[in-house]
Design a protein that fits this description.
The protein contains 30 helices and 32 strands. By secondary structure, the protein is α+β, with helices and mostly antiparallel strands. It has four domains: 31 residues, no CATH class; 349 residues, no CATH class; 189 residues; 234 residues, no CATH class. Strands 16, 17, 18, 23, 24, 25, 26, 27, 28, 29 and 32 form an eleven-stranded antiparallel beta sheet that branches. Strands 11-10-7-13-12 form a five-stranded mixed beta sheet, with helices on both faces. β5 and β6 form a beta hairpin. It starts with a helix and ends in a 12-residue tail after the last helix. The relative contact order is 0.11. The protein binds zinc ion. Zinc ion binds next to loops.
Length: 1004
């Protein structure tokens, strides 16, 4: 409602007087005392769960107040009434890019992915519904579910299930501000009374295992309510809906993806968390996870895939019969023997019960989760262990690491943010902070682990950062996927080397922060537990191992991207961002029955959004029908962006500079005042040469003046002045064909009388990259020159030999050049697992000035250079000069190619949106390395080696193949006893993953 009032077209005189607004707001909120009206589709139900209570006893409990919504009502509402559904892609397509002679498939959106295409083709192959000749289309539904704590203080939790439409572009869908998600249900917690009930029936308090079982039953019961008969009916026969283009179509809803963290994936797929076969998609054995990346590992994923087949369903049925009818104990040997080898839980799977007979398999929708599995999963684990290793080297090493992280320059508006003060302590780190640490650690950890291991650890960090970049690309092609395969194999090798050969050389214990956190956690558990738990904060020994589910998940990315499009389409981060809206809504409730109040607010919000969209549509229609005499409408977007009004907007240019300079300074003054400064030595000569080249349309030479000095007398500069700017906005097209802007700051601050260092901390944002040329002036593909922008100028100049009498405005960047590290030469990149190193050029090296001028439109992008911390700062390159940091420059800087995905693709080459000649050529595909294997006990690996690279990892590209399981003959091992530990750990999972902080948005 407030949006309405703030709208530009709202005139108070014609509408409701302001003093009545509060009343109207109250009325609106009180409107419709029951928010669960049929048209919004919300229902409150109870779900019956049956509890196995030992021989001949069985109880039913009915948790009430289960809020959920009819999926079909939401689908109808969106497809028929939400104007945003106009942009839905109802017809899938394959996307290709042609570069040179090469044609490659492009992967990105869900509606151009293999799974969507397959659904569509299958649908068209089916016989039509009797008497119906309507077009048949697929709605790809994407679900997110995750529990969240609603307030920083207090215990209220919400466990929502969100639904999104994969037919909408992921670029819109993944923006929290677009609010394209729909709440479809809230999963309740197990009611307290259940304990009383069980005590009443069996005479003793329920064991954890039984409560865990009840929680799983409840979860499936909620899914049964969500995916009701109406949904199954629509799944099979479709529903006829009038789409936004006015055409009636038969719409078939399909469950495309389900994004959740690992504990919830386990719940959904009715498997036991961290059991013998911890993966919800395949039967990989926990002890084989360290083979990650190898051919045998990849084979397991395809040949031992979990399927929702008769075998699985019969097994569960049999188990439940023994549990409920014959009274076997839940934790007894019988149940364990039956289920533990496959880590299954004795719960009927709701999705299987509802949709299996229609050809649906719930294992197929469980997508990878970059946020929990990598950023705050595997990467966090590796970083923590590196920190433990540093502690074992002494506290100084940890201090040094903290200092280095703090000294990493920021980049972009929030691409790399200022590092936390104490990385080792690990307090208050958001998921996106971990991403920043991953993108910069290859430079930070340089030479920190002694001569024996530093090199190997740098390689590992390089490969980890590269894997992360590739896994997070928003647009893939066949060749980038090939690279991801190769990098995955290498990451496996590197991690095994680290775990087997490097980590054991350090005596690692918990860090003090970890020990304290464990003690706190245990103290909290002790309050509720009867068993004694050690709450000592003495640091325990901690080793690095690889057999974790999260690591295993890293091997599924290539397959997932082929099947469902790129990871940004189904990252759990989208759901985490939506949690924020729920938290905002919660704050406005009176905290009693808050779920209902959140639903009520959500309903109003949804309706307002649709109204807003419609108003926009009408306005558009209205404005196109206006008579030509009426004044042109101002684009609201341009108007809102007020700062643009003072900018020189020129579409033909790659950059924007303000029309009015921040300062103007006379060339004579600079020359006189700073004649001693090395950066001024050839300032005039080079500046005049640059301007003359520009006026005469001649290419300016970077390595020396083109014109003899007497030519400068033919140049006229208006007022003998340069006009300076603080910021250059540089526009570019990203690899995934989007528009983006870099902000480049001037390193020096100019006033009319003097030049000084910037004091606003932005001097780090002054590094740029330009396309590099070889000796014969040909562009070198995918390689760059780097420079620090000392000043951003414009001048008005005229050539008296020229034809024009007018002064021409020329924009100029005054730069200090970086040169390649001569010792490194070309030994960087994937082949050497190192980043490029550059350093400022020495003064007057071979007669060449380390300073120069460049045209702003030649700049490719802003660059992120991280000091090579192993070498100290020096002032020897330039004696006393404004062009260097007060405390001196670092001898070298690492070029951070991992700072964002666009930068990575520029270095790699082959970005779809990168069409400039120098970046046109694709890089050679990464060579697929040999996979190293650590022989596991009792297993012959010789066979694995035989066909290591022939059919192994590349098989990920093949379409899914249905393979019969050979799991039935598995040995039964009864050693696993962690049945109690799984979903009870839910709270821990929340706190471990940082609760609040996960929701922080990423840069892209
Ligand atoms: Zn698996």
């Amino acid at each position: 409602m407030y949006k309405v009032r703030e709208h530009e077209d709202y005139k108070e005189s014609e509408c409701i007087p302001s003093e009545q607004w509060n009343k109207v707001a109250r009325d609106l909120e009180n409107f419709d005392p029951s928010p669960l009206t049929a048209n919004e589709g919300w229902k409150t139900s109870s779900a019956k769960i049956s509890i196995p209570l030992g021989p001949k006893k069985q109880g039913n409990q009915i948790p009430k107040n289960l809020h959920h919504r009819s999926l079909i009502d939401v689908i109808k509402k969106v497809v028929e009434h939400d104007p945003r559904a106009k942009n839905f892609h109802l017809f899938p397509y394959e996307e290709y890019v042609k570069k040179g002679d090469q044609v490659e498939r492009v992967y990105g959106e869900l509606y151009s992915s293999n799974s969507f295409l397959e659904e569509f083709r299958n649908l068209q192959a089916q016989p039509p519904e009797p008497g119906c000749d309507l077009e048949r289309v697929v709605l790809g539904l994407q679900f997110w579910s995750d529990a969240t704590v609603l307030a920083n203080f207090g215990s209220h939790k919400l466990w929502p299930v969100y639904m999104y439409f994969g037919n909408e572009s992921k670029y819109i869908r993944s923006k929290a501000t677009e609010e394209t998600g729909w709440d479809v249900g809230y999963i309740p917690q197990l009611p307290e009374e259940i304990q009383d009930f069980m005590k009443h029936v069996s005479g003793k308090p329920a064991k954890q295992a039984l409560l865990t079982h009840c929680r799983r039953e409840l979860y499936q019961a909620v899914l049964m309510l969500l995916f009701d008969d109406q949904f199954a009916e629509a799944y099979e026969h479709g529903i006829v809906l009038t789409c936004q283009d006015g055409i009636k179509r038969r719409v078939f809803p399909r469950v495309s993806t389900w994004s959740a963290d690992y504990p919830e994936k386990a719940l959904l797929s009715t498997i036991r968390e961290n059991g013998r076969c911890p993966c919800p998609r395949c039967f990989v054995q926990k002890e084989n996870i360290h083979k990650f990346g190898s051919a045998s590992d990849q084979r397991t994923r395809t040949t031992r895939k979990r399927r929702d087949n008769d075998w699985r369903r019969n097994l569960i049925r049999k188990c439940r019969h023994h549990l409920y009818n014959l009274g076997h104990a839940l934790t007894g040997a019988f149940v364990k023997k039956l289920l533990d080898p496959f880590s299954l839980t004795p719960n009927e799977n709701a999705l299987s019960a509802r949709l299996h007979h229609l050809g649906f398999d719930f294992h197929d929708i469980l997508v990878v989760d970059l946020l929990h599995e990598v950023e705050i999963g595997e990467w966090k684990g590796l970083l923590s262990h590196l920190i433990r290793m540093l502690y074992s080297c002494g506290d100084n090493a940890v201090e040094e690491m903290n200092a280095r992280f703090r000294a990493v320059p920021t980049f972009g508006t929030d691409t790399i943010r200022q590092c936390p003060k104490n990385v080792a302590e690990g307090k208050h780190r958001a998921a996106r902070d971990f991403e920043d640490l991953l993108q910069t650690s290859h430079a930070v950890f340089e030479d920190m682990f002694g001569p024996e291991h530093s090199e190997s650890i740098s390689e590992l960090l390089y490969v980890a950062a590269e894997w992360h970049c590739l896994a997070k690309l928003r647009m893939h092609t066949d060749s980038t996927l090939q690279d991801l395969v190769a990098v995955t194999v290498e990451l496996g090798n590197q991690l095994r080397k680290f775990a087997e050969k490097i980590a054991p050389d350090f005596v690692t214990k918990e860090t003090p922060a970890e020990a304290a956190a464990r003690a706190r956690r245990h103290a909290a558990t002790q309050k509720t537990s009867t068993e004694p738990i050690s709450t000592s904060s003495a640091r325990k020994a901690k080793m690095y191992h690889l057999n974790r589910y999260k690591l295993h998940a890293l091997g599924d990315y290539v397959d997932m991207i082929c099947e469902f499009g790129t990871t940004d389409s189904y990252n759990t981060q989208i759901g985490e961002a939506r949690h924020r809206l729920k938290k905002q809504a919660y704050r406005k409730t009176n905290k009693r029955d808050f779920e209902l109040q959140i639903i009520k607010r959500g309903n109003i919000q949804e309706s307002l959004l649709i109204i807003e969209q419609r108003v926009k549509e009408w306005k558009k229609k209205f404005s196109t029908h206006r008579t030509p005499s009426s004044p042109p409408t101002v684009d609201a977007e341009a108007k809102s962006n007020e700062q643009n009004s003072e900018l020189e907007i020129d579409d033909s240019k790659r950059y924007t500079l303000a029309r009015n300079p921040d300062a103007s300074i006379s060339i004579g003054t600079i020359q006189e005042k700073y004649s001693e400064d090395p950066c001024m030595r050839h300032f005039n000569v080079m500046l005049f040469d640059y301007i003359l080249c520009n006026l005469r349309g001649v290419r300016y030479q970077v390595d020396g003046p083109r014109y003899p000095s007497h030519e400068a007398t033919k140049l006229r500069i208006r007022g003998d002045k340069i006009h300076t700017h603080n910021t250059l906005r540089l526009h570019y097209t990203t690899y995934d064909v989007r528009r983006a802007t870099d902000f480049i700051k001037s390193y020096l601050k100019f006033s009319s009388t003097k030049i000084q260092h910037q004091t606003d901390g932005n001097q780090n944002r002054s590094t740029i990259m330009l396309s590099a040329y070889d000796k014969d002036d040909n562009p070198k593909p995918n390689s760059f020159w780097y420079a620090r922008v000392l000043g951003i100028f414009h001048v008005y100049a005229r050539d008296i030999d020229g034809s024009s009498e007018d002064f021409k405005r020329i924009d100029i960047l005054w730069v200090r050049w970086f040169g390649q590290d001569p010792d490194q030469q070309d030994r960087f990149g994937w082949k050497y697992k190192r980043t490029e190193r550059v350093g400022f050029q020495e003064d007057d090296l071979e007669g060449m000035s380390p300073f120069g001028f460049v045209d702003p439109s030649d700049v490719v992008r802003a660059a992120h250079l991280i000091p090579a911390f192993a070498q100290r700062r020096t002032t020897e390159l330039l004696q006393d000069s404004l062009a260097q940091d007060k405390e001196g420059d670092f001898a070298f800087y690492c070029v951070n190619r991992f700072v964002d995905r666009d930068m990575y693709m520029r270095h790699r080459g082959g970005g779809v949106g990168h069409t400039d000649q120098t970046q046109f050529t694709d890089s050679e595909p990464y060579e697929l390395g040999e996979s190293t294997m650590v022989p596991a006990e009792g297993l012959s690996d010789e066979q694995d080696h035989e066909d290591e690279m022939d059919d192994g990892v590349l098989a990920a590209f093949d379409r899914r193949t249905e393979v019969e399981e050979d799991v039935e003959e598995e040995d039964v091992d009864e050693e696993d006893d962690d049945v109690n530990k799984d979903i009870n750990g839910d709270d821990e999972e929340l706190s471990e993953s940082g609760g609040e902080f996960i929701d922080d948005l990423y840069e892209d």
